[in-house]
Specification:
Layout (H helix, E strand, L loop, with lengths): L13 H18 L18 H17 L9 H10 L5 H20 L6 H17 L11 H14 L5 E5 L6 E3 L9 E5 L1 H9 L11 E3 L3 H4 L4
Parallel strand pairs: 1-3
Antiparallel strand pairs: 1-2, 3-4
Helix pairs in contact: 1-4, 1-5, 1-6, 2-3, 2-4, 2-5, 5-6
């Protein structure tokens, strides 16, 4: 992937590729965990356990597949109701719903002309939240990272987000994010890709931010969920 690739237009299949890659990495890890692990708190999502995050993700996929988009969908209140509806489900049932969603949602997203592409990115970030809560290494990395970066570049561009030129340790060429219209001089990031993802997702960064350089923008301005 190069800086040019992500500005050549939407790749309709990208969200689905990201979800399938993450499915193959995440589901075996989860199915091998002890039941008590699903009760661990998730620092990135205060008040939620691992089970809650997974229930939220699986419910979001089911809503897309079933075209259930009532008023207020994906609001905090809607998310809490989705989790409550699954309170008496077994963890295995939640994982089954999650696996189905990660397998079947991509083709549906491909037909939405980009309106729901950010959902795939958000669910990938939540997978990182879960891995971090479980003490797994590389929380916001893994085989899905290249797809996630490409999708992040697309989402920030479509939202007219602050332009940023990222020199990543993980890529040979720079990554361009946000609005490239030229009205604002691009900010500059130097560091690794997982930390960049953390900044855009509003997650805590390791070592208090000592491992990266950011110029021309405050870290809080990058948060696409803030």
């Amino acid at each position: 992937m190069t800086a040019t690739d992500v500005h050549n237009g939407r790749d309709a299949e990208l969200p689905g590729r990201l979800l399938v890659v993450e499915r193959d990495a995440l589901l075996p890890l989860l199915r091998g965990r002890a039941e008590e692990d699903f009760g661990r708190p998730v620092p990135a999502c205060p008040g939620w356990t691992v089970r809650d995050v997974l229930a939220h993700c699986s419910a979001a996929f089911s809503r897309v597949l079933e075209k259930r988009f009532e008023e207020g969908v994906f609001s905090p209140e809607s998310n809490d109701r989705d989790i409550a509806e699954r309170a008496d489900w077994t963890s295995a049932r939640i994982l089954d719903e999650l696996e189905r969603g990660m397998t079947e949602t991509g083709p549906v997203l491909a037909r939405t002309r980009g309106r729901l592409d950010a959902l795939a990115l958000g669910e990938w970030v939540h997978a990182g939240d879960v891995r971090e809560a479980l003490g797994e290494p590389g929380a916001y990395a893994g085989p899905g990272l290249p797809h996630a970066l490409q999708l992040l570049a697309w989402v920030t561009r479509e939202r007219g987000h602050v332009p940023l030129h990222a020199d990543l340790d993980d890529l040979d060429e720079p990554l361009l994010l946000g609005d490239g219209g030229g009205e604002r001089t691009p900010a500059r990031y130097i560091g690794d890709a997982p930390t960049l993802v953390r900044l855009y997702a509003g997650r805590a960064v390791p070592d208090g931010g000592a491992g990266f350089e950011l110029a021309g923008v405050e870290a809080g301005e990058l948060n696409i969920y803030g």
